[in-house]
Specification:
The chain is an alpha/beta fold. It has a domain of 124 residues. The protein is built from five helices and 18 strands. Helix 1 links the parallel strand 5 and strand 6. The longest helix has 15 residues. It is elongated and about 75 Å long.
Length: 348
């Protein structure tokens, strides 16, 4: 079965589940099955394909105007995808969601305007990047994969969400050496990280902006283990930590707080923020470490409201009065006197 639209089409979505409609603006086409061949209009700029097999024909010479391509539940081989990308010269964004046949994703250097890559629940084992303009990369999945960056590639911003495995260990051992130009990183996941006694082997030498949302599996030091990541990012300018505690308030004395051995100071860190700051012991210790080790810090925000979303700031709506009281007590009892005069402390 063939499907064609007018030459002036700009956006096209094909959802090829059985008995599903295919929508293009206000026109609907009903196909009884997903066995079809589709000659695409060359004027299409935004293309989304769902639940189908995709294989370029021998006469395929690309979609000259295509800017965004989104494939969801699409079976396409890595060779066919690379061939498609090689002939799509205006492509700017690529989104892949649950495409099972792509284990090695290679982005060639042909789409010169390509700057955004989003991979969601694809079982890739290796990501090979040869383009220079890729700026943003979003990844959500459970697979640790090898990153190969071609010569001249300037990979600057990445968002990684891992559903299993040690996200921090992967970031330091795999991402740091593979992405030397990375400036912004948002990392979500789990970690068993412990505090090492020596400097990390790999460092993020260009990383300026870092957001961490970690569930720490090492209960001994918990959030204080995040200091290991700070050691690997000596040139940070802004740090946001989204605390994921289960509201375990710290009832001890100041003398019970742990202090780490002296480390190299952070001379560039000017802004730090912790959301979900509820007075749990390791969160207090982490805040104190940031204050003590950041010689040029200008502002520290300790926000008791938990951050819930993946990439956007979405908070829980209400905070009980008792939580506010504990939060304010924690600040006055453990944090306030450690704040240098040049640092602005915001907490409510």
């Amino acid at each position: 079965m063939y499907f064609a639209v007018s030459s002036g089409a700009k956006e096209l979505t094909l959802d090829l589940r059985p008995q599903r409609f295919i929508h293009y603006r206000n026109i609907q086409y009903n196909f009884p099955s997903s066995n079809f061949a589709t000659p695409m209009p060359t004027s299409v700029e935004h293309l989304k394909l769902l639940f189908c097999y995709l294989r370029p024909s021998p006469t395929f010479f690309g979609l000259s105007n295509l800017k965004t391509l989104e494939l969801s539940f699409v079976r396409i081989t890595k060779e066919d995808l690379e061939s498609l990308l090689s002939y799509t010269f205006s492509l700017q964004e690529l989104k892949l969601s649950q495409c099972p046949n792509i284990d090695h994703l290679r982005i060639p250097d042909v789409p010169s305007k390509f700057n955004y890559l989003d991979i969601d629940l694809c079982w890739i084992r290796a990501l090979e990047i040869h383009i220079q303009n890729l700026v943003i990369f979003n990844y959500h999945g459970s697979v640790r994969f090898r990153i190969i960056q071609g010569e001249g590639s300037l990979f600057k911003e990445a968002r990684f969400q891992f559903s299993c495995g040690d996200a921090i260990e992967y970031a330091i051992t795999e991402m740091a050496p593979a992405l030397p130009n990375l400036e912004t990183l948002f990392l979500i996941g789990f970690s068993k990280m412990v505090i090492p006694t020596r400097d990390p082997r790999h460092r993020f030498h260009c990383l300026k902006h870092l957001q961490l949302k970690m569930i720490m599996l090492s209960k001994k030091y918990n959030n204080l283990c995040l200091v290991s990541f700070l050691d690997a990012a000596p040139f940070l300018e802004s740090l946001i930590v989204h605390v994921c505690n289960e509201s375990l308030y710290y009832p001890g004395k100041k003398t019970d707080l742990r202090r780490l051995e002296k480390r190299k100071p952070h001379k560039n860190l000017k802004f730090a923020k912790m959301t979900g700051f509820d007075g749990e012991r390791s969160s207090i210790e982490l805040a104190l470490h940031i204050l003590e080790s950041s010689t040029n810090l200008e502002c520290l925000i300790l926000d008791p409201i938990k951050y819930k979303s993946e990439w956007k700031y979405i908070y829980e709506e209400n905070l009980r009065d008792v939580q506010w009281r504990v939060h304010n007590f924690t600040i006055s009892e453990y944090i306030a006197e450690a704040v240098p005069s040049h640092v602005k402390l915001l907490f409510s």
